[in-house]
Fold this protein.
Amino acid sequence: MTATPIPRTLAMTVYGDLDVSVIDELPPGRKPVETSLRYEENRMDVYRSVGAQLRLGRQVYIVYPLIAESEKLDLRSVEEGYDTIREIFRDYRVAMVHGRLKPAEKDYQMHLFASGEARILVATTVIEVGVNVPNATVMIIENAERFGLSQLHQLRGRVGRGADKSYCVLMSKRKIAKETRQRLEVMTSTTDGFVVAEADLRMRGPGDIEGTMQSGLPMKLNIANLATDGQIIQIARDDAEAVLTADPELTSPAGRIMALELSRLSRRTADWSKIS
């Protein structure tokens, strides 16, 4: 079960390797998360919005790509962010979680936030799954240009779990690659995990269905396009299942024709290997 299928998972459902049940609506009482793209010059406006949510009694996540400052990477770190956020929001307790904390300390920091004692949680991506705090209504993702679509959507999913309106703010550098900007625009244009996953599939490729690659490799099929022809591929899959149910040995007149065609196609090993 997933809210954000990675490209390979989505491709496997199309190829028929998985049976799928689709839930394409929010649970009752939840509202879509409003997602916006902001830059460094907007930072104080973002902090003012955070302050307004805190005064309403809400809680806030702030996610960073690094644990500590790096001389090689011009990215924000959770340790630096912790000091900054504590200084700006002095009236509120701030918790911090990252992968280098000992398990007991990590559990304690998470308890502070989950119980409401800490109103702000600064963290790395360790919180992208398994965290459920309905009172948290703001997710700020620093250096959002460094994250992939699936990861951004997973992080956004930490808010919007209660009845209150929730917000996700993508903080980014202005000068970024075209493909990176397209990723961020997908995030601001939809909250639908299926739309996000399909965009991820188009941008990154389906991965290796018979191997371990979760993305990458070209979507080169002879006829169909995995990213745009999902409905007709599903129809073809249903037809194939009907044939296998009625004539599994392909011994009927029509079945023998299909068997000959399959035999012919199987000799084109080099071309058909592209789908794996």
Observations:
- Strands lie at 34-38, 59-63, 94-97, 120-123, 136-141, 167-171.
- The chain has two domains: 25-191, 230-275.
- The CA atoms of residues 38 and 45 lie 9 Å apart.
